[in-house]
Design brief:
Blueprint (H helix, E strand, L loop, with lengths): L3 H16 L4 H11 L9 H13 L1 H10 L2 H11 L6 H7 L16 H10 L3 E8 L2 E8 L1 H7 L27 H13 L12 H10 L4 H14 L2 E4 L2 E4 L1 H8 L3 H11 L6 H17 L5 E2 H12 L12 H11 L13 H18 L3 E3 L8 E4 L17 E3 L4 E4 L5 H7 L4 E5 L3 E4 L2 H9 L4 H10 L7 H15 L8 E3 L2 H8 L2 H4 L2 E6 L2 E4 L10 H5 L21
Antiparallel strand pairs: 1-2, 3-4, 5-7, 6-7, 8-9, 9-11, 10-11, 12-14, 13-14
Helix pairs in contact: 1-3, 6-17, 11-13, 12-18, 13-14, 14-15, 15-17, 16-17, 19-21
Length: 557
């Protein structure tokens, strides 16, 4: 445990280290201002200790506190809650903020106000080394920091204004139903993309129709799932990674939305994605109580990225950020790179977050006469973390096998019925249909007739129609009437067959028993390096048999 004396000594040493960055001429100037008796030549170390005594004195501290203005608290709060803030960070953060005197009688320059705090030794310069050389950032006077902290807050820096509730009309709100509809569409039309990932024109028209004109919103969700690896593109087809999707569906709905917004901006490393998740989450939660300007929202993102618990560092290279921003669509190949500091990139990302949040209807602009745009959070978000305790009945199926899903179903429940549904219309209420093709696909995924009926009836107030049960049985008979196998088939003689049937370790490799002594294995055929017999535990056997291909020599030209 650090004693109070050791704590004071540590703060004095830190102050001395920062103060030593000033030139001798500047030091003498400070000594003359703060120390009553000062003569030259002087002992630097003793003079610094005397200066520390000035800030330790409780009477002097109270005078300092009384002298602080609203603007001082604003800047001190910024420096206190930002990791290694530089002068460039300060100007970027307050780029759109005007500083005025307390009575608003005149404007104060940002440079002058920052240097005023430096002249009063309320903040000090500190130096750090990185790959690009030595950099200077600001810290609050270490001796005063603990004393001032109770009076500082991130809220002092934010542009908070009371706005009347005259909201922009909400034309779209991201919902679980919409996300499920996107998954269903990709399942139905896996060839919706070109090789470069762009959605084909005929699919754009179909999406506009099914999703009621919300193509931009579809694109954002689709792109985010591509970047998260839930949708995988191979050649010209998109496949769904159901394991990742199930893991994603287990998140709270609020967190699902945050993931979608963050990953819609580009494909990021795990660390960078976590930083963006924190920024967006903080941004949304800050809007729960009152409206904020776009500038304030960007400042919140800045605090999230530059806080002590963030992995973000101002030492990111320009090249790394350029690549990230290009993947997010900020820069194009023809655009000129900006020579900006890392703080500028945080604000660039924040602008994209705000834009995408607004497009997805998670935040919206307030309509008022002010030149500034103020944003409010969609009230729906406040109730997302409180799902119903009991499963309500959300699903209805009619005689034509059309399925209607009412709002309220969670994504983890939705994906249990998606494999055998085809999307028809996505709105507040989502409509699907059950067709032979979709049911065949679900059989392929391991669904049985009973499982399909059970999954549907779990979310229904009554049983599925008898005609639907009959059709399912007929479709299953048709599906199982002929099968084409692709993979490894094991043929055993009578003696080894008996051993196989009685060994549970062998049976776990069996997908299906084709005939006595003939087994279709569940070992992936794509895994060419697998030692099949070794996996099965069979020591002596013939080589893997394959169909012989007859090739003809084409001859010489």
């Amino acid at each position: 445990m650090i004693s109070q004396r050791d704590s004071i000594i540590s703060k004095i040493n830190e102050f001395s280290e920062c103060f030593s960055n000033f030139s001798d001429e500047k030091m003498i100037s400070y000594f003359r201002i703060f120390l009553k008796e000062f003569k030259t030549p002087f002992n630097k170390q003793k003079s610094i200790e005397s200066l520390c005594g000035f800030f330790v004195n409780q009477e002097n501290r109270q005078k300092i506190l009384v002298s602080l203005k609203k603007i001082d608290f604003k800047i001190l709060s910024f420096i206190n809650y930002t990791l290694k803030p530089t002068e460039e960070d300060f100007f970027e953060f307050f780029k759109e903020t005007e500083f005025f005197s307390d009575d608003n009688s005149y404007s104060i320059s940002k440079t002058g106000k920052l240097h005023n705090l430096l002249d009063r030794l309320l903040i000090l310069p500190k130096k750090t080394e990185d790959f690009s050389g030595q950099k200077e950032f600001f810290v609050i006077n270490p001796i005063l920091k603990e004393f001032l902290e109770p009076y500082l807050s991130e809220k002092f820096t934010l542009d908070k204004t009371e706005v009347q509730d005259s909201f922009q009309e909400i034309n779209f709100s991201l919902s679980v139903s919409f996300i499920a509809s996107v998954i269903s569409y990709v399942q139905d039309f896996p060839d919706l993309c070109k090789l470069d990932g762009e959605i084909k024109k005929k699919n754009q028209e179909k999406i506009e129709e099914i999703f009621q004109g919300n193509f931009s919103q579809f694109q954002l969700v689709f792109k985010s799932f591509i970047n998260l690896g839930i949708f995988r593109q191979s050649e010209s087809k998109i496949s769904i990674d159901w394991e990742k999707l199930n893991s994603f569906a287990e998140l709270k709905t609020f967190n699902q939305f945050v993931y979608i917004v963050a990953s819609s901006c580009g494909h990021f490393s795990r660390n960078m994605l976590n930083i963006h998740l924190k920024m967006i989450s903080d941004l949304l939660l800050s809007l729960f109580d009152f409206s904020l300007s776009g500038e304030a929202l960007k400042q919140i993102c800045f605090f999230s990225a530059r806080s002590d618990d963030s992995d973000f560092s101002s030492n990111f290279t320009r090249r790394r950020f350029s690549m990230i921003l290009e993947s997010g669509g900020i820069y194009t190949e023809s655009s000129e790179p900006k020579e900006e500091k890392s703080s500028g990139f945080v604000f660039d990302f924040a602008e994209i977050f705000i834009k995408n949040l607004n497009t997805l209807g998670l935040i919206f602009k307030n309509s008022h006469s002010s030149q500034k745009e103020f944003y409010s959070v969609n009230p729906i978000l406040k109730n997302l973390n409180f799902p119903p305790v009991e499963k309500r009945k959300f699903v209805n199926i009619d005689s034509s096998f059309q399925v209607t899903v009412l709002p309220g179903l969670e994504l983890s429940d939705f994906i249990k019925i998606l494999p055998f549904l085809n999307i028809l219309n996505s709105g507040i209420v989502v409509q699907f249909e059950i067709k032979k093709e979709s049911v065949f696909n679900s059989f392929e995924s391991g669904f049985s007739v009973k499982k399909i009926i059970d999954e549907l009836e779990f979310y229904m107030n009554y049983s599925v129609p008898e005609s639907f049960k009959i059709n399912l049985e007929q479709w299953f008979d048709s599906y199982s009437g002929a099968k084409i196998y692709k993979g490894y088939v094991l043929k055993l003689d009578e003696k080894k067959d008996i051993l196989w049937k009685n060994n549970p370790n062998f049976l776990k490799f069996t997908q299906e028993i084709i005939a006595p002594g003939l087994y279709f294995l569940n070992i992936p055929v794509e895994d060419e390096n697998s030692d099949i017999l070794k996996i099965l535990g069979i020591k002596e056997a013939g080589l893997v048999q394959a169909v012989k291909k007859e090739t003809q020599f084409p001859g010489f030209k």
